[in-house]
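Please, why this fold?
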Amino acid sequence: MNRERHIASAFDRDLETVQALVVKMGGLVEAAITDAALALETRDDELAEDVRRRDRSIDLLEAQVNEEAARLIALRSPTATDLRLVLTVIKISASLERVGDYAKNIAKRSNVLAHMPVIEGAGMALRRMSSTVEKMLKDALDSYVHRDAALASDVRARDLEVDQMYNALFREFLTHMMEDPRNITACMHLHFIAKNIERMGDHATSIAEQVVYLMSGALPDESRPKRDSVSRAGIPDSED
């Protein structure tokens, strides 16, 4: 009995280490979203470059999470619920790494857009959209930390709002391009940014779905609420 208690205690300690890395990673990603959107709106090349540099730290944390999780599985041989928890951690860290990549992509395009004509209202609208996604991500991570399936389901439902914001922006960019061909290049970059933010929302939703899986043992049955994208009008979505 003492040996079993010792093994369980060791597993819990190892798991706490991995989960702490995920929480740290989440904090860095949330900051990257905020700073990338702010750099875009204020045309701050230095801040955009800082976001790009910090992505390396996010990548390193994901690698560390994977390494620690693999070690935990090899040494502790978790079963049932414990194994599900470890697999959830790995998937959440992967989603966080992708969100970090999208923030980096936004920062890259911000540097380019800083030297182009301003598209009135675009920076503010994209920042509002990114703030919505950042709140989704924060709540998704909180739902994981507190094992709150109801909050996770709420995050999942909010993805529709992000889709609606993206579609509205897409139509707005099309209008600017049709009104003045000189706006086309800037609006193309802004469209890519909007799509990157929309995909951040998808990954925040994926994290929420992993929480539902963790708590119930199954992913949500019903299809995720989605609004058909209008971007299929001939403009590609974004780089992955």
